Amino acid sequence: MGSLQYYSILKGENRPFTSQQLYRIFEKVADEVCPETVAVTFEDDSQRNNTNITYKQLNYLSNQLARGIVECVASVGGKSNGDGDYIVSVCMSPSDKLIITLLAIWKAGCSYLPLDPTFPKNRIEHILNESKPVLVIYDNTPDIDQSAFENAFSLNYDDLCNKCEKNHGSNLHENEQFHHEKDDLGIVLYTSGSTGVPKGVRLPFSIMLNRLQWQWHKFPYSYTEKYCIFKTALTFVDSVCEIWGPLLNGLTIVVVPKYITKDPVKLVALMERYQIERLVLVPSLLRSLILYLSLEKQVNPLKSLKIWICSGESLPVQLAEEFFKYFKGQRVLCNFYGSTEIMGDVTYHTVTDASELQGFDKVPIGIPLDNTIVYLLDNEMKPVSTGNVGELYVSGFNVAAGYVNGRDPDKFINNSLVLDIAHCRLYKTGDYARIVKGVLQYEGRTDSQVKVRGHRVDLAEVEKAVAATPYVEKAVCLCYKPGEIDQALVAFVTLQKDAQHITGLKIEDYLQQKLTSYMIPQVIVLENIPLLVNGKTDRQTLLKMYANTNNNGDNEIQIDIDYTDVPEDKMEAAKVLFETVGSVIGHSTRLTLNLKSNFYQLGGNSLNSIYTVTKLRDQGYIIAITDFIRAANMNEILYKMVKDTSNNGDDTNLNEIPNDYQFKMLRNEHQNDVCKMIATSFYEKADLEQWIKQDISIDDYGKLIHKAWDALIEKDLSFVVCDKNDELIGVALNFDAHDEPEIEINSRIAVILEFLEFIEAPVRDNLLPPGKGSILHCFMMATKDTISSQENVLLMQAMEAEMLRLAKRKQFLGILTTNTSPLTQQLGKDVYGYKIMNDYQVNQFVANDKSRPFAEAPDSQRAMVSWKEV
User: Fold this and answer.
1) Which residue intervals of 698-831 are DSSP H helices?
2) Distance CA 204, CA 15 (A)
3) CA 459 to CA 194: how far, in whole Å?
4) pLDDT under 70 in the chain at which residues?
5) Which residues have CB under 8 Å from 457's CB, separation 6+?
6) Can you say how many angstroms the Cα of residue 524 is from the centroid of all Cα atoms in its chain?
7) Which of 77, 159, 597, 615 is the least buried, fewest Cβ under 10 Å from its Cβ?
8) Residue 579: which of 564, 560, 598, 565 has the closest Cα?
9) Tens digits of residue pLDDT in 339-377
């Protein structure tokens, strides 16, 4: 990197660069490098869908679809828009189909424009009317309002595929494609507009490739990195690197359904299962993950995850320090800065230890990427002196090709500071910054834009929508505590004289049709808007008024708690729940708190939901995070909360066992489901396996069960559990302890079996009844990973009852089992009545090869061999 720091100019490294279309790079990888490698994997348990697509298949299917796009658009005489661009808009949920579609759009010679299915109809209509795509491709799902596409040529994905079944699957030649008139455009992304109207950013292939090549050089994929996750919304610029970074390097992308991205339990489990090594996230999500992992007391979590990339929001020093305090080992915490107009990221700063943050009051945004220059300029467009604050401008290969329809030309201006044609254009970011210790420090906005969960939101756009609401006379939109845990968008309004019946909640309901969800403010109705002596809005007084909302001030807006219909035996828990929720989201609370209230409609979000669960546990009430997140209302949360009378985290409620479970003896038709369930459960969640995870794979368990299968069927001591829909949700694999088969294991999980034999043999052979037919050995027990943690406990109770019935039916004298989980240990001892025969500290175990496979385990981790007489 070079610099002219005295003049507050920083230059990224100059690297040779030749522009290429990204799909041509993909085609070379698919045809020549790794055709049989899995390119895309998509698991959607909610739809029972599990798909793997190889590079060869992805290339073939996208070529077929590309020809179909060209044929369909040509059949209706589709033409480029006013910018000379051929745009295809995509309104689809994350899936393998989405990746095929995006690649096909590029291969057809078009650029893709994402539409989030949750966008309100008027926002979609504005985007389509301005960008004029030649085609809209959409999912045929209930959450997509197809009437928004009425003025555009649109096709359902499945219908489009049906038209392409007989198309050739070879790569398209140039004469088969559309061609943009000016730029080699790849993507159009719509962002919040400073004029109050969303505007589309035009991203050519060249700037995407420059950003990707810098990433591959600075943060190369490791030799152990096989999987990367695509979890970011397609409308967000970070999705570009999540999708195309891995796919242009022969790696596998794991497409994450939305319901998993919102659930930290499942997201962490997925990252553990695929040993994800890098993650892009906004700081608020990082805070949420640390809070969740701390709450769950996981030991050395996410060991494979070495590169953590924060972007989209300011990264507080305190959060970075918490990161290094919690995560041990070699980790890199990166702070990226940028916006859609400069390909998401244009500067970066890396931290490898908390000591590197000394002397900074905020984490720097760093230095420029390759082939870019950053300028800090004053009002006369002259560089400010080093250390002074200036407005941040960017030139180079990361600068977009302007906006759709040439909107806001003043944002992209000629650069008079250099003669190099590669830097002839400047992008005016609207951000202030200064140089401290040779790196950039972010100093705020020049306008009213803020970041909400990583999305850029212009308060002017929100304010304009609120002001246009019927009966609203005047509106002022502000952001309370931007970037902090209780950040909130707030709109203060006055009403017209005939609108006394209008409430803030009714205005918010109306805004649901006008703004996307993360842009909807809390609306507070006032008699008048306070003014300064110069006649301008007194914004500080409004923010202070909002801050005092729950502090008994003169402008207090009380949180209304209604305990109607709460049963007497639940009143104590209800008071704890309602008061905790009120204290956590008090500034965002919009409705009366009662049994019917939904946490998120009250103003909650994924971050403060975890904080709420933490505070409930501090007050002696246990509820699983997944249960809390998925609960429809407070009543459901209340009945899933369990009083922790022993302070041990046992969240059981064992008197409520569902009566719709079906128990069936293990049969051959269960083999595939059982293998998958055992593999998923033990690989992801088992307490011993975490210490040797780098040496095992999820397939090792499937191989183990396959080798033991014939013996399991022959002994007829194992059973499965099905729900009322006949879906297999649990399994118990059992043997006679004195009649177990010899199973040859060639993988590292052999050390797990060796350990279990080491601690069980002395009990079995010396302390328990001898002879065949006396001891039923519970070998493995697992439940389906998609069921809630509360149901998981209930299912375990039901399986335990079935174990007892089986043992009695087969005339065994008792049941032998080993528990390595604190929860199952507690259940076994205090609830099921097992007697602990051997309590072993797992880090003391020395294997036959003289290794200590669990040496990293804390002293508190135990394995308990237990016995229960029948």
Assistant:
1) 698-715, 750-766, 789-809, 822-826
2) 19
3) 8
4) 1-6, 45-49, 193-196, 296-298, 446-448, 451-455, 482-486, 532-536, 548-559, 586-591, 605-607, 626, 645-660, 684-686, 788-794, 797, 822-832, 860
5) 192, 449, 450, 451, 489, 518, 519
6) 31
7) 77
8) 560
9) 999 999 999 999 999 999 888 878 999 999 999 999 999
- What angle do the packed helices 283-296 and 264-273 form, to 10 degrees? 90
Treating both helix axes as pointing N-terminal to C-terminal, what angle do 671-685 and 698-715 enclose, rounded to 10 degrees?
130
Token pair listed for 189: 């992304």
> In the prediction, which pLDDT does 44 show?
77
Q: 49 phi and psi, to 5 degrees?
A: -120, 130
CB 202 within 8 A of CB 405: no
Q: Are 865 and 763 in contact (CB under 8 A)?
A: yes
For residues 285 and 291, is the Cβ–Cβ distance under 8 A? no
User: Tokens standing for 85?
Assistant: 């661009």
Token reading at 444 = 């705020």
Distance CA 357, CA 244 (A): 32
Residue 229's H or E segment, with its range, is: strand 227-230
Residue 832 phi, psi dihedral angles, 5° rounding:
-85, -15
Q: For position 210, what pLDDT does the model report? A: 97
Alpha carbons within 13 A on the beta-carbon side of 30: 25
According to DSSP, the residues that pair with 50 across neighbouring strands are 43
Among positive and negative, which fits the CA dihedral 124, 127, 128, 129? positive
| Whole-number Cα distances in Å, 172 to 113, 169, 852 | 21, 9, 56
User: Can you list the positions of beta strands (E) in 472-518?
Assistant: 472-480, 488-495
Cα–Cα distance between 352 and 62 in angstroms, integer? 41
Q: Which residue has the tokens 């993909």?
A: 26
What b/e string do you get for 328-364 counting C-beta neighbours within 10 Å, with b at 16 or more?
A: eeebebbbbbbbbbbbbbbbbbbbeeeeebeebebbb
Confidence (pLDDT) at 657: 44
- 736 vs 721: CA distance, rounded Å: 20
DSSP three-state, residue 286: helix
Q: Which of 565, 543, 561, 567 is nearest to 553 (CA)?
A: 543
In Å, what is the CA distance from 656 to each residue of 50, 240, 795, 821, 829? 33, 47, 10, 22, 20
Supply the pLDDT for residue 538: 79
What is the token pair recorded at 166?
A: 């007989």
Burial of 7 (0-12, 13-18, 19+ CB in 10 A): middle
Structure tokens at 860: 């508190």
CA distance 831 to 212: 55
Q: What is the pLDDT of residues 611-659, one digit of tens each?
A: 788 788 888 888 877 678 778 889 999 988 888 754 444 333 333 444 5
Q: What is the pLDDT of residue 331?
A: 93
Instruction: Return the bridge partners of 54, or none.
Output: 38
N-term to C-term CA, the chain: 74
Name the maximum alpha-carbon separation found in the chain.
Answer: 95
Where do runs of H (alpha helix) occur along 258-384? Answer: 258-261, 264-273, 283-296, 317-326
CA-wise closest residue to 863 among 816, 815, 819, 827:
819
Tokens of residue 296, six digits: 């769950």
Residue identified by tokens 């195309």 is 244
Task: Give CA separation, 822 vs 351, 629, 816, 828, in Å.
Answer: 35, 24, 17, 10
DSSP codes, 525-553: E-SS--B-TTSSB-HHHHHHHHHTTTTT-
Return the amino acid letter for 745: I
Domains and CATH numbers, the chain: 449-547 (3.30.300.30), 568-643 (1.10.1200.10), 662-869 (3.40.630.30)
What H or E segment, with its residue span, contains residue 476? strand 472-480
